[in-house]
Amino acid sequence: MSFEGSLKEFGLADILQLIYFQRKTGVLTLEGRMDKVRLLFYEGNIISAGTRRKVEANRFGKLLLKNGLIKEEDLQKALEEQQSTGEKLGNILMKNGVVGKEQIQEILTTQITETVINLFSWKDGSYDFSPQGVPVDKEMPIALDTQHVLMEGLRIVDEWSLVEGKLSPDTIFERIGNPGVELTPEEEEMLGLVDGERDVSVIIESSYMDSFQASKSLVSLMEKGIIGPKEAAQVAPEIALHMALPSAKKGIPYPPFITPVIFMVSLFIAIISFPPQRSDYADRIKTSADIDNIRFTIEAYKYENGSYPQSTDQITKPADAWGRQYIYKPAADDFVLFSAGPDGKEGTADDVY
Asked: The pTM is what?
């Protein structure tokens, strides 16, 4: 039996308990304001998790690097091979003898756990569970005890109270002091993303950590006096218009028609001197919505043909809001689809997923 609704009415904890105790197999899709997540369940346990915001292969590779299991050159070589073969990154690394099966399983488990636990921070959103057959990786089986993940998620919810109220998504941080204390690897990573230009939401999205871990690291850096909120810059300097008019002598007022004329001239000068910058917010929203539609088309293609298309040209010829082709990278059991954003450069902070 499928079910759907709002997370405000039926919370994530209730949904996970229902799936776990009824030993359901299928796909749970959760959609919030900033992300869309798909969880695959087999007999009540979580076997896979995918998020729209993060490039899964990059997150997996980053975790391997972070745990000292591979070197940067090993990762880049494997990513290049993945682009040409479509094979899973873990399988390539294992085949090349870089990491072992147990190490890959441990990293995949960590990756899935982080994705699920991050969902507990959502205040609202929608869910849709569809009971159906799901692909089980026999070579690299992963099965997370849903009850264990649920308990860990509830623990994180309690800790969120220490973070909430100290961060705002639109806050821009800048470095205000040199780190005189020892930093954790997470704090070092977040400090590297603080540049005085990106706001908190972009920094968190650019990191390879879940929202809670990233937010906690930012708060820690702020409490240690290493970073601080950047003062808002003045949008445009005041424009002083000095006009030598005969009637402007002391004690003699301007004629009634002069004041509006001065105002209009000042406004004209301001406009030509400081033209308004076009916001790409609407373009990002439209592109994100288009990506969702294309994702569903790709999933439908796999359902009918048994595999993902090798190119989006097989199903559609889409272009993002900036007139560029979407970046599509298919693999055996998953795919990556995103836009390079306004700057047209893959892997930068303005990419849209």
From this structure: 0.53
